[in-house]
């Protein structure tokens, strides 16, 4: 069915697109057949590639040649890769260096008709290999195409790793059935914390994507910072329970988010909401091919297509072995009369309080995660009289008490959070999340079991500073002058006006630092070393700005003698006043604001404006120099402020940083702005 559909699409339409290559539907079958011939003597094929065109073609070639395919998730450790390789008996592995033979023999425990073995790390370190026939995966893909229709046939952007079954089946297979252009990009392009997600989606004109809840929250923050993604028509979100208020907030800012639910054993998706058939608060209606029931509050799937686990002694590879007829998902939930599924939690995660209440932690967690001030949350309290939570704030000045109170207002008394502990972010890198974003509860709770003071934040001061200034920083990046500047869409006169205002605040940097150093009390004299280092670095930078003005066609002396805008004067006056009247250490908040913003402005804005205005590089000496300087400065700054332990000093730095982000935004907003008119001298 899949290959027939591929052959029916317009031959000149792009099927697969990457940064440096693309394959049309007309050429895709030929590419698949060429790869399939190379698999003639291959028993079990492992694919250890990044998200790229060859990954998809090798995967489809394995299906066409009836070769067992084993995708290797990029987030697996070496031990997990070795386990998957040995358990399945991968005979050949596709790597960035080509196909290599492993010397292993195909596992005798692979059930007959297995087309794919998808390994999922789950909540433990040992991956489990789920064996699926091609028919199970095609049932899911065709059901998704059936309920979405041809309106799905735009550009699907693969955000999740292709080795994750959800992206592989619901993204690529369903997309190719519909005639989508599937856009692929290396996972490193997204950035360590997916900070480039918005830009990549926008650059690809993506119309659909699949996300896990954590990535949805990341994208929501980026949309609020960088603006809407008007081409997106459908975002499927799954992986864990999502509070309906989070869906509502995402849709309010223009993200067409629809929740779904599935399991690897059922070839990924079982139910999903779609436009026109949508009930927020549920995981959507069962797909047309799915048969399900509720037994003892647990969701049971009939005839899931699941063949068994590789390595399971009961699987003998015999052609007479029977598929699983009834699969207990381990998920608690309900199914309405019209087929909509509500998942309330995992049976194995259920907490039983000392009062005898059974509570799925995913329920109060979803209420917590619907609060903007909360980035991550884990609820616990088995055997205790009340529930507690580990909470990762979304920013350092987050009002966690108010956020918890708001979440509790939607919960009954017995499910409310009575105590919480602040925690550092949970990531796959620190072992707290699986590769697809699910929390490893046992690992997380064991890491925090020794905390003696539950209210003590488990993050350093620099991280708090970054988090607690996030809103003010985001507001700055919404100022039209800066938005257009970062994309190069400003006139020459606007650039010169920006440099003029920059000159009139940068010329105060050295005096600021001298004033700060002279007013430090004796117990803060250790900061003099940092002040001296900053003084040596900053001296004379205002003259670089005048050089840039001249190189850009402006009048350097007119700029030097100009009266700065009131907004610039206010920002300068505020810092002198704070140093003299309140707390000189607070000036480090201004340092943080300038260096954290100039790094991005320098690295992105300078190149964009230089290209847009056709100006020489000599007109950007200030910006380009700060692109490299401030990256090193930020490392030094982080080390310095993490040595500041006085709560009053920390509060002062955060206060000044937030206020100067606001004042700097006013400075930009006051600059005469001519938008797209680039050729105004």
CATH class assignment of the largest domain: Alpha Beta
Helix proportion of residues, in percent? 40-55%
For the record, the count of structural domains works out to 3
Mean pLDDT across every amino acid position: 86
How would you describe this structure to a colleague?
With 681 residues, this protein is an alpha/beta fold. It has three domains: 342 residues, Rossmann fold (3-Layer(aba) Sandwich), CATH 3.40.50.12780; 110 residues, GMP Synthetase, Chain A, domain 3 (2-Layer Sandwich), CATH 3.30.300.30; 208 residues, Up-down Bundle (Heme Oxygenase, Chain A). Helices cover 43% and strands 17% of the residues. The protein contains 24 helices and 25 strands. Helix 14 runs parallel beside helix 24 and helix 21 runs antiparallel to helix 24. The chain is globular, with a radius of gyration of 28 Å. The C terminus is likely disordered.
Could you write a compact summary of the structure shown?
This protein is of the alpha/beta class and 681 residues long. The protein is 43% helix and 17% strand. It is built from 24 helices and 25 strands.
SSE arrangement:
Blueprint: H1 2-8, E1 14-17, E2 22-24, H2 25-37, E3 44-47, H3 53-64, E4 68-71, H4 78-88, E5 92-95, E6 98-101, E7 116-120, E8 128-132, H5 134-148, E9 155-157, H6 165-178, E10 181-183, H7 197-203, E11 208-211, H8 213-226, E12 234-237, H9 244-252, E13 257-263, E14 268-272, E15 285-286, E16 291-295, E17 298-302, E18 308-309, E19 326-335, E20 341-346, E21 351-352, E22 358-359, H10 362-369, E23 374-380, E24 387-393, H11 400-409, E25 417-422, H12 441-447, H13 461-468, H14 470-476, H15 480-486, H16 492-506, H17 509-519, H18 528-538, H19 541-551, H20 556-561, H21 566-582, H22 588-613, H23 621-641, H24 647-669
Parallel strand pairs: 1-10, 3-4, 3-5, 9-10, 9-11, 11-12, 12-13, 24-25
Antiparallel strand pairs: 1-2, 5-6, 7-8, 8-18, 13-14, 14-15, 16-17, 17-19, 19-20, 21-22, 23-24
């Amino acid at each position: 069915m899949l290959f027939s559909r591929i052959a029916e699409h317009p031959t000149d339409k792009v099927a697969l697109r990457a940064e440096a290559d693309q394959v049309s539907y007309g050429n895709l079958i030929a590419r698949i057949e060429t790869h399939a011939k190379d698999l003639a003597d291959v028993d079990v094929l492992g694919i250890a590639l990044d998200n790229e065109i060859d990954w998809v073609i090798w995967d489809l070639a394995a299906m066409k040649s009836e070769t067992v395919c084993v995708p290797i998730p990029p987030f697996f450790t070496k031990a997990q890769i070795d386990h998957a390789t040995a358990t399945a008996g991968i005979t050949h592995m596709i790597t960035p260096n080509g196909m290599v033979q492993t010397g292993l023999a195909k596992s005798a425990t692979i059930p007959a008709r297995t087309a794919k073995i998808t390994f999922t790390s789950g909540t433990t370190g040992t991956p489990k290999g789920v064996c699926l026939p091609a028919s199970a995966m095609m049932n899911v893909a065709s059901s998704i195409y059936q309920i979405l229709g041809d309106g799905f046939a735009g550009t699907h952007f693969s955000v999740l790793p292709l080795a994750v079954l959800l992206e592989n089946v619901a993204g690529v297979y369903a997309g190719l059935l519909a005639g989508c252009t599937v856009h692929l990009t290396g996972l490193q392009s997204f950035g360590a914390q997916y900070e480039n997600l918005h830009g990549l989606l926008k650059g690809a004109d993506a119309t659909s994507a699949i996300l896990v809840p954590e990535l949805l929250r990341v994208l929501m923050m980026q949309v609020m910072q960088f603006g809407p993604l008007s081409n997106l028509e459908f975002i499927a979100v799954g992986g864990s329970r999502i509070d309906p208020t989070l869906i509502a907030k995402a849709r309010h800012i223009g993200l067409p988010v629809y929740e779904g639910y599935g399991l690897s054993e059922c070839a990924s998706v079982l139910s999903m909401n779609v436009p026109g058939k949508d009930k927020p608060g549920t995981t959507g209606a069962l797909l047309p091919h799915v048969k399900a029931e509720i037994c003892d509050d647990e969701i049971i799937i009939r005839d899931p297509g699941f063949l068994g686990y590789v390595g399971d002694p009961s699987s003998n590879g015999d052609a007479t072995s029977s598929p699983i007829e009834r699969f207990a998902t381990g998920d608690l939930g309900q199914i309405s009369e019209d087929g909509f599924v509500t998942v309330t939690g995992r049976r194995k995660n259920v907490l039983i309080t000392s009062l005898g209440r059974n509570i799925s932690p995913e329920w109060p967690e979803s209420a917590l995660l619907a609060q903007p001030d909360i980035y991550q949350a884990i609820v616990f309290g088995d055997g205790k009289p009340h529930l507690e939570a580990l909470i990762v704030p979304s920013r350092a000045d987050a009002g966690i008490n108010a956020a918890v109170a708001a979440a509790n207002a939607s919960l009954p008394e017995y499910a409310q959070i009575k105590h919480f502990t602040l925690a550092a972010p949970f990531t796959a890198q620190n072992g707290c999340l699986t590769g697809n974003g699910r929390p490893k509860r046992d690992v997380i709770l064991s890491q925090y079991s020794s905390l003696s003071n539950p209210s003590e934040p488990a993050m350093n001061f620099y991280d708090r500073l970054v988090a607690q200034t996030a809103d003010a920083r985001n507001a700055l990046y919404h100022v039209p002058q800066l938005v257009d500047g970062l994309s190069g869409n400003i006139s020459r006169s606007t650039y010169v006006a920006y440099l003029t205002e920059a000159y009139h605040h940068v010329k105060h940097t050295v005096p600021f630092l001298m004033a700060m150093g002279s007013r430090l009390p004796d117990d803060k004299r250790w900061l003099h070393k940092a002040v001296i280092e900053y003084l040596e670095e900053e001296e004379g930078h205002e003259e670089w700005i005048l050089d840039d003005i001249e190189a850009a066609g402006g009048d350097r002396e007119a700029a030097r003698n100009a009266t700065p805008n009131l907004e610039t004067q206010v920002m300068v006056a505020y810092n002198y006043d704070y140093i003299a009247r309140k707390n000189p250490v607070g000036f480090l908040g201004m340092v943080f604001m300038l260096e954290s913003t100039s790094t991005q402005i320098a690295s992105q804005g300078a190149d964009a404006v230089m290209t847009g205005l056709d100006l020489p590089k000599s007109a950007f000496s200030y910006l380009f120099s700060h692109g490299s300087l401030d990256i090193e400065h930020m490392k030094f700054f982080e080390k310095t402020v993490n040595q500041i332990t006085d709560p009053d000093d920390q509060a002062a730095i955060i206060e000044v940083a937030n206020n100067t982000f606001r004042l700097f935004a006013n400075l930009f907003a006051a600059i005469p702005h001519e938008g797209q008119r680039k050729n105004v001298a």
